């Protein structure tokens, strides 16, 4: 069983800006390329931050020249105020950037997105140089896998390869990413493990084992052949 790597899913041609890029240039880049954020890089193409529409809108919302009857944004921390007053990418950006490596799995990247509360991750090499970007949409792309690809991976890699079961003993049906298992396994205790492993296959939406039976009950006291 192999989780897809970020290097397989990421966008490789990534638009970026230098740290000294002025506010209007950043807005222009976002608009022209129809993106909501761009990595900020130094002269060696090393990523030093990310500037997003949210970073730019903070400045707009905190404009001192706003009409008198519209109060300035309340409760801004000092660092937020400094960003709102910035005029270049290095002053406006969010830093340090949240980055991943191309060899990371989809699962690892998804967990990092969740923990950090971000919508995208910058992909860097061993020298922190920009090599790509991966978004939530890219990660969700694994659910576009063909049902037959999922069925084959479960049958050959999970059941046959990892668990050493005869694929003829366990049937695998996949419809729209929903996996239904049938047949017979040697021990009852194997069923939860099979469910977990099948659920971990990229593209699986749900797993049902209601039609999967067992020969021996190794869980219930006094259990034996079913």
Overview in brief:
The protein is an alpha/beta fold and 226 residues long. The protein folds into two domains: 6-142, CBS-domain (Roll); 145-216, 2-Layer Sandwich (Histidine-containing Protein, Chain: A). The protein has helices at 6-9, 23-33, 53-61, 78-84, 89-92, 106-116, 136-140, 147-162, 190-199, and strands spanning 17-18, 37-41, 47-52, 99-100, 120-124, 130-135, 170-175, 178-187, 206-216.
Structural account:
- This protein has helices spanning 6-9, 23-33, 53-61, 78-84, 89-92, 106-116, 136-140, 147-162, 190-199; strands spanning 17-18, 37-41, 47-52, 99-100, 120-124, 130-135, 170-175, 178-187, 206-216.
- It is α/β, with parallel strands linked by helices and 226 residues long.
- It folds into two domains: 6-142, Roll (CBS-domain), CATH 3.10.580; 145-216, Histidine-containing Protein, Chain: A, CATH 3.30.1340.
- The chain has a three-stranded mixed sheet with strand order 1-2-3. A three-stranded mixed sheet has the order 4-5-6. A three-stranded mixed sheet has the order 7-8-9, with helices on one face.
- The mean pLDDT is 87.
